[in-house]
Write a structure and sequence with these properties.
The chain is 29% helix and 17% strand. By secondary structure, the protein is α/β, with parallel strands linked by helices.
Length: 303
């Protein structure tokens, strides 16, 4: 199912037999906990696409985030493949479709960019890299997402990094933006540290800059960036389920994305946990769209 309009007015395919360098796709649902209604998360991909239209006519203009036009004077090389058909509580089916689409894009080869959707989506998205490892994970989030199970479910919103840590193709992870009181108990923090995850709080980034996180990623690594919208401060990203003060700024977030692209190579990018019903004047969707644009720039401008 193709959403209209497409992100940033990008095409859904390239002409002249060219293959894209990056492919956007959306997914509203991953794994929902029993008895929970997650229908409204599915509005997120469309909200992000709609917000991106404000910049659609200016793709060739100078972008001050990137230091030049998005595609740096080269032909457009990113496409929007539309949304996957996901359904609330079709947990195994949703995971299967997301993983399969990720594998399909990687086989082109191209870099997959996933617009979500609930915070269980990173599990099948990162699982899709099984034949394209090793990869490092850069997670931007207010929470560490290391619960082993919640309500008997092991692939839900609080489980992503725990499940990702069990994937053989994942070489390591850096988790950035933690603050406040979240789902993590002492056992989850100890499990993350025992695995070797580098936990970098929002306070540390505010005090020391984004390099306090980026320095933990090996030079030349292939990196999957997974960005939960609640990693940013609710002053600029109010449309989330768990707003927590003290989050990352827009500049810190785009500096993390750009820094990952310079330190290694961004192999994949997902943005999740935008909750449109809680948005204010479309601010969160606009911020999310700009984050995706920065990710595209970091990917396609890497020669």
């Amino acid at each position: 199912m193709i959403s209209t309009p497409l992100f940033l007015g990008l095409p859904d395919r390239l002409g002249d037999g060219r293959k894209p360098r990056a492919v956007i796709f959306g997914a509203g649902h991953g794994t929902t906990y029993p008895g929970q209604d997650s229908r409204l998360w599915a509005q997120a991909p469309s909200a992000i696409r709609a917000a991106s239209q404000a910049d659609a006519a200016f793709v060739e203009h100078w972008d001050f985030d990137l230091g030049g036009p998005l595609f740096d004077g080269e032909p457009v090389c990113c496409i929007d493949a539309g949304d996957l058909a996901t359904a609330m509580h079709d947990n195994e089916g949703n995971r299967s479709r997301i993983e399969a689409k990720t594998r399909e894009i990687l086989a082109l080869p191209a870099v997959p960019i996933l617009l979500g959707g609930d915070d269980s989506l990173p599990i099948p998205f990162i699982a899709g890299f099984a034949d394209h490892g090793p990869v490092w994970i850069l997670q931007i989030d207010a929470h560490i997402d290391w619960r082993d199970e919640v309500h008997g479910e092991r692939h839900g919103y609080s489980n992503p990094m725990r499940r990702v840590s069990e994937m053989n193709h994942v070489a390591g992870m850096v988790q950035v933006g933690m603050r406040g009181i979240g789902s993590a108990r002492l056992g989850e923090v100890e499990a993350a540290r025992s695995y070797g995850s580098q936990l970098v709080t929002a306070r540390e980034v505010h005090a020391q800059g984004v390099e306090v996180a980026l320095r933990h990623i090996p030079e030349g690594a292939r990196i999957v960036v997974t960005l939960d919208c609640d990693g940013l401060d609710p002053g600029i990203m109010p449309g989330v389920a768990s707003p927590t003060p003290g989050g990352l700024s827009y500049t810190q977030a785009i500096d993390l994305i750009a820094g990952a692209g310079r330190r290694g190579r961004i192999a994949g990018f997902d943005l999740v946990e935008l909750y449109p019903p809680a948005d204010m004047d479309g601010l969160s969707a606009l911020t999310a769209a700009r984050l995706v644009i920065n990710a595209i720039g970091a990917i396609v401008r890497r020669r």
